[in-house]
Amino acid sequence: MNRILDWEHYLRTAADAAAEGIVMLRNDNGALPLNKDETVSVFGRIQLHYYKSGTGSGGMVNVSKVTGITDGLMEAGVKVNEELLGIYREWDEANPIDLGSGWGAEPWSQEEMPLSEEVVENAAAKGETAIVIIGRTAGEEMESRVEAGSFLLTDKEKDMLAKVRAAFKKVVVLLNVGGLIDLGYIESTAPDALLYVWQGGMTGGTGAADVLTGRISPCGKLPDTIAYSVEDYPSHAYFGDRERNFYAEDIYVGYRYFDTFAPEKVRYPFGFGLSYTTFDVEVQTCEVSGLTASIYVKVRNTGKYCGKEVVMMYLSRPQGELGQPVKTLCAFEKTRNLAPNEEQTLILTADLSDNASYDDSGVTGNKSCFVLEKGRYRFFIGGCNSEDSANIELHETAVVRRCEQALAPVEAFERFRPLPDGDGFKLGFEPVPLSEVDEDARRLERLPAELEYTGDKGIRLADVYRGEHTMDEFIAQLSDSELACIIRGEGMGSPRVTAGTASAFGGVTDRLNELGIPAACCSDGPSGMRLDCGTKAFSLPNGTMLASTFNKELITELFRCMGMEMSVNKVDCLLGPGMNIHRHPLNGRNFEYFSEDPYLTGTIAAAELRGMRESGVTGTIKHFCGNNQETNRHFLDSVVSERALREIYLKGFEIAVKQGGATSIMTTYGKLNGLWTAGNYDLNTTILRKDWGFTGFTMTDWWAKINRRGKDHDESDFAAMAKAQNDVYMVCADGDENPDNTLESLASGDLTRGELQRNAANICRFILTTNAFRRTIGEGDTVTVEGRPQEEQTSDEPVVFYDLTDGLSIDLSAVKSVKGTNHSFALTVLEPGWYEVSVTASSQQSELAQIPLTIFAMGTASGTLTWNGTGGALVTHSTRIPMFSRFTTIRLYFAQNGLDLISIDFRKDKELASLTDISDKED
Ligand code: BGC
């Protein structure tokens, strides 16, 4: 199929998402929209370094250009105080930002420019409005901390806010952050306007300017509750524990907790967000049919600006035996852009059976079932009169779905439950039901039938595609060793697929290719493609921002565009959406994820998947499940009740599978109730496939740990993974050869051929849906990109591979160091270890010139080498880089012109020889 990707439309759609995701918390004193005739002073160095996303795998999109907030304002015709901008530029040049060195090492914030009263007063003389931008990154292997520069403001930021507040009539504070930060100090300075502008990707500044200038009225809503203090969140006492994290708050996450137990602790509620205009939201009629309720809501724009409004439908359940939160979100819709006085009727529909509760203790008489306890169920529209609701009265408790106990904890602890207290509830506790299941015995009872081995009958995967042979006939041809290979993902940077991507899977050996199984390609994810070889890609708003839009159609359209861009780059499967629950505001990866609410989470993920599918590709929903903290993430045990898993932590995934048609899933790094998810049968088989009917394929997270119940981890235990029906281990250095135990376990009978054949079929069924496969039969999708600027064009030149051994020297004399460009190549690491990497260059620039070159290894900044003018003399600078992955892409990024490059040399670092790969290290 031929598709057209209109780059302008892509940019506009992303900017719209970056505008619609902005959440305005206050706007007094007519501060916004800005008056275009007036000069605006922008404070905060982040105006020069807009955070398009956080860091780590989810933030490594190599973009050609990022439009920051000041750029966006100037492009929108706002008069920005250029003198102040000049002061920032000069200071920034002399005080370069710190990118950090190594994985997860970028500082959470950058040092702010000190402000003198004179600078602020001079600026205030030019116009009455100031914008202050506070910036924070976010990231993998990091956590936000209750420290200055992280969750709290630094002294310099406080000083900036105080001085600006004292001098300006109108102060607008913009939070260019990945997740929540403390608002205490900010609000104490009484800013006139306060907006979460999140991290909006490469067009984030355009979106922000659209909102600030009033081109788009703010219409984002909070996907999380903002409490007064971080200690107010119910998981606070447990979050961050390195060993074992008890989810004692159970299903009472986010607003489910605050509404039920502690409404007074809420600074801004879930779903909150102001607009420039006002709306009248009126329930017109309610319809009930069986267990389904529909509420018709008329929304009228009663203000002076055009704008969109989000309408949310909630469900309140009877307390019953189980105990329930006061309300849960069950549907939402967003209006089109309504002109003043214009109205639109929205229909919100939800079904009680999708909102049933899981009885994990048997207290309702229906253990391990989704139940609707008898009583009155009330569907209502948030913020509307509680009389206007659709009610369903159940006279008997109904079982909606029978399941079997799975994933329950093995360790005793107590969880929250509401106890009636006057008109409200007080916090009580009850013991969590424990597991009575032996997963391995369950697995043995359900072993898949084995297909008799036929040897190569000449059946190729394309024959299955054409319906000439069945998948079983095809799979029956695979030998033990072919089956052992197909469950290996190869990477990172496998030369079998697009250079610099996370993995190849499926056809990871020549023999599998002969059988007609191509290597399909996975790339991070989630907000744009991570192409470590330096290829430019589009960077989208982060997950939290997308969720804040509450706009399913817009998100689908955005990911339809991205899907086409994936096809252009021969990427079949994005490693995203990330959809873990915002259990606690300090989680470093919250920026990639959507919300504290599972319905919103699942619905947004489904919207993304729909968009990618329309473009012939797909995404991988991750991390399945309970990946809610970065601290010690490879080893942490999340101890969670089955009810909380089913209703909160699995729920979004279930929606993405059932409604979003997800076909690819990544498990987590850590343990869930004692068992690493990579080898967890009940997670990957009982719940995912048996309960939900999932028919796609699953993969581990990269170099994940695996264990068996009661045993320690053993990464070579691919058999444990395969038995659990987690299909692909991500990643192995070489698909052909790997020190795993698959063949040995087959021989001993610990793992059956039937199990491996089943996994191979899961993988092959998925491969059949990919472009990688369609290309093998001449039916690959083509995408014509229209209107992409020249500097964005990616080169078709293949990335050159060198064999890395001690002493490798690569001639760079033909490479031009042009500001803002990259030079990339790839290494096949024949001798793994730490290397001293030295770059030799000269420069004719002045002695005081600073000419930095940053070396990225596998997309991670691994050292910035800075030359001054050398008067033409050769000068060598070095850094140390761990090279343990078999394929490593190296990208040299030139932040300035003016280096005459000679060579890059690699020397094995004998002193560090004893250190192994950082990914093996307990953090
Ligand atoms: C992350 C995943 C990511 C993978 C590949 C891991 O560190 O947890 O989300 O997709 O790396 O880059």
Question: How would you characterize the overall build of this protein?
Answer:
With 923 residues, the chain is α/β, with parallel strands linked by helices. Helices cover 23% and strands 26% of the residues. It has 23 helices and 44 strands. It has a 6-stranded mixed sheet, with helices on both faces. The longest helix has 17 residues, at 552-568. The model is unreliable at 917-923 (pLDDT under 50). The chain binds beta-D-glucopyranose. Beta-D-glucopyranose is lined by residues 57, 140, 502, 524-525, 575, 622, 701-702.
How many runs of DSSP E, i.e. beta strands?
Answer: 44
Figure out the total of helices: 23
Separation of termini? 47 Å
Computed CA radius of gyration, to the nearest angstrom: 28 Å
Instruction: Report the average pLDDT across residues.
Output: 95
Biggest β-sheet description: 6 strands, mixed
Order of strands, main sheet, comes to: 2-7-6-5-3-4
List cofactors, ions and other ligands: beta-D-glucopyranose
Strand content: 25-35%
Instruction: Estimate the helix proportion, in percent.
Output: 10-25%
Structural class, please? alpha/beta
List keywords for this structure.
single chain, 923 residues, alpha/beta, 23 helices, 44 strands, 26% strand, globular, disordered C terminus, binds beta-D-glucopyranose
Question: How does the SSE layout of this entry go?
Answer:
Layout: E1 2-6, H1 7-20, E2 23-27, E3 39-43, H2 69-75, E4 79-80, H3 82-94, H4 117-124, E5 129-135, H5 155-167, E6 170-176, H6 184-188, E7 193-196, H7 204-212, E8 226-227, E9 244-246, H8 255-261, E10 266-268, E11 279-289, E12 292-301, E13 310-316, E14 328-334, E15 343-351, E16 357-359, E17 369-372, E18 375-381, E19 389-394, E20 398-402, E21 414-421, E22 424-431, H9 439-445, H10 461-465, H11 471-475, H12 480-486, E23 488-490, E24 503-506, H13 510-514, E25 519-524, H14 543-549, H15 552-568, E26 573-575, H16 598-614, E27 618-619, E28 621-624, E29 637-639, H17 642-649, H18 651-658, E30 664-667, E31 671-672, E32 675-676, H19 681-691, E33 697-699, H20 718-724, E34 729-732, H21 742-748, H22 753-767, H23 771-776, E35 782-786, E36 801-804, E37 809-811, E38 821-829, E39 833-842, E40 851-857, E41 860-867, E42 875-883, E43 887-894, E44 900-908
Parallel strand pairs: 1-35, 3-4, 3-5, 5-6, 6-7, 9-29, 23-34, 25-26, 26-27, 28-30, 29-31, 30-33, 36-38
Antiparallel strand pairs: 2-7, 8-10, 11-12, 12-15, 13-14, 13-18, 16-17, 17-20, 18-19, 21-22, 24-25, 31-32, 37-44, 38-43, 39-42, 39-44, 40-41, 40-43
